[in-house]
Design brief:
By secondary structure, this protein is mainly α. It contains 18 helices and no strands. The chain binds magnesium ion. Magnesium ion binds near residues 78, 82, 107, 108 and 192.
Length: about 375
Amino acid sequence: MLIGRKERENNEKKLLAPYAAFSADGERKNKEKQDLTRTSFQRDCHRIYHSKAFRRMQGKRQVLSIQTNDHIRTRLTHTLEVTQIARSIARTHALNEDLTEAIALGHDLGHTPFGHPGEDALNYVLEKYGSEFEHNKHSLRIVTELETRSQDYAGLNLTYQALDGLNKHRENLNVRQKKQTHLEGQIVNLADEIAYNSHDLEDAVTNEIVSIGEIINLKIWQYLKLDLPKDFLKKPLTRDLARALISLCVKDLSFELSKNLKALDPVSSISIQNYTEPIATFSLQVRNALHELKNFLWDRYYQSEKALEETKEAKKIIIALAEAYLKKPEKLPNDEKEKLKSHELVEVVKDYIAGMTDVFAENEYCKINN
Ligand code: MG
């Protein structure tokens, strides 16, 4: 049995909610011939999977160095966890899973080496040269400008719907001037939060930076303990902790979303984009507990002695690389020097450093110092 694209598009009309995004409406800046079997949103996913920036995420840290241990999250495994959570929520609510997947796969492509400290350091140097760096904007830049898949245009030529979902800071960008992104995009934003809170908590405990004894004092514990095995405190399994947190957040979000959809009764994806607030949200109680958990993770994990030590090193490397290339462009590799014929030096340096993996940046740092 072969299911063609047309049939898939018809199935979407039958199976998805009226306020879902439909792949038959998928539009691209550069017009393309439609695929025989794959929908426009499936093709968006496949283009991201096969991009260079996607592969580089395996060498970029989430919080701690990827050499910490074999099981530490990287930017890539974080992305895959976000994708799983987001697709699962989208399926539950009869939304477009393929569009949700595309946005989740692409949402962190723009991260620099060394996570947020790397981003802060790059932005610090670029601001002195009249530019700036922000990873969400850079994700969009990668898929619209920097990746190559065709001789005819720059970027991956994703659908506008996928770009809208990636465009978290739309006031500064010319993708589409909507008040909100579609529900698929809203769900990825929350799935991102669910994924990093749960896996960072697991990684913090596994790496003995945070203890279970500290977690039981948090508001979130009152919810988590209801879903944990009775003897959890005697024999704690950190995986259980992350599982319980994901489960709590997904159920809470699903309940709130159903309530909001019932109250607002949106007729289309466009009507959802015209609301003043996102309609995919957590309940007030869970939001408060997550806020406290985030502050806790900030103090005890992101600002831990181990993380700060790595942050210091990361900032040193990024600042030294950016300053070196900006002051002496001849230190750039030939491919990058070639780009100077048509691009400003500061933009070339920004794209080059942002694209590096952690190890590549460390090696380049050694090279410029020798
Ligand atoms: Mg993320």
